[in-house]
Specification:
Blueprint (H helix, E strand, L loop, with lengths): L8 H16 L6 E8 L3 E8 L4 E7 L6 H17 L7 E2 L8 E4 L5 E8 L4 E2 L6 H20 L10 E2 L22 H19 L7 E3 L8 E4 L2 E4 L6 E3 L1 H16 L1 H16 L9 H19 L4 H18 L11
Parallel strand pairs: 8-12
Antiparallel strand pairs: 1-2, 2-3, 3-6, 4-6, 5-6, 7-10, 9-12, 10-11
Amino acid sequence: MKPTNELTRLGKIRRQRAYARQALAQYPIEIRRADLIGTDTNLIYRVTTTDGARYILRLAFPGWRTAENAESEVLWLDALARDTDIPVPRLLRTHAGDSLYHFTDAEGNARRAVLMTYLPGTLLGKRLTEPNLFKMGELFAKLHRHGKEWHPPAGFSSHTFDRYMSRGEPDALFADAQRDAFTDHQRDVITRMRARVESAYAALDPADLRVIHCDLWHDNIKVYRGKLAPFDFEDTIWGYRIHDLAMALLDLAEDAGVARYHELLPVFRAGYESRLPWPEGDLGVFQMGRVLWRLNWIARFWRKGLAGAVAFDTALFERFEAEGRLSDPLRNKS
């Protein structure tokens, strides 16, 4: 059998579709159609049954996240469905009663699939109104409250996102191989920002640690009949509230623009504070930590783009040092 990485794009899709059919055969539903709608970090299929019900099948690529990550996601989704009124996706179990289907593909890779209900509605990114941002703040607070009160069972991740890089990824940014991507000035600015971010994480009170979504940006939320429904819980981990907020709100600033972000942030915060006190910590510093994480990702996987990213982010860090808040441009379009 030809290795998957040697196949054409169409060949890859066909092979993965066979695995999707294998996974779907494990569930007590009759399939009318399964449409591929996402191919980034997972294969995502929208599944329609013969009785008209719709589901999402997520088939993980080899090496993407871990079995423990997947187990943590389904454990929290089950708990949220049981304990709260948050409209999260509901898991469908296999004939054997399992929330995850594990199998080995034809190349010997460990694979897993999960099937959950399809959430109707529109992505929040298309409805970034002030009423919806208030609700988004409320949603974060409700998740943060449950994440603190819930006691995860055995099988849940023991890992904690307590630094700007916390998933075991290598620190590649200042490796010898990247030396020519920096000027001395750029290295100094980035080193200074990294120290500031690391100090901010170290200063957080461990009592604030709880289960967090860790990727709840606006397009991982749907709006339906006035309610917000979160999804894509595969990054679920122990972490700090300010980190969870910083990631989502940096994405908001990048997509909505900084001027609109500064209008929406107080509304989001009001929604959050209607249910929980705002967490301690400088939100902007933790957002700079996310920028540092992305810069490290570029150093690992996109070497030819590193010099341009370093120049752009150095200017961003200097503006943040001078102004103490986000400012345009946030996104490198070169």
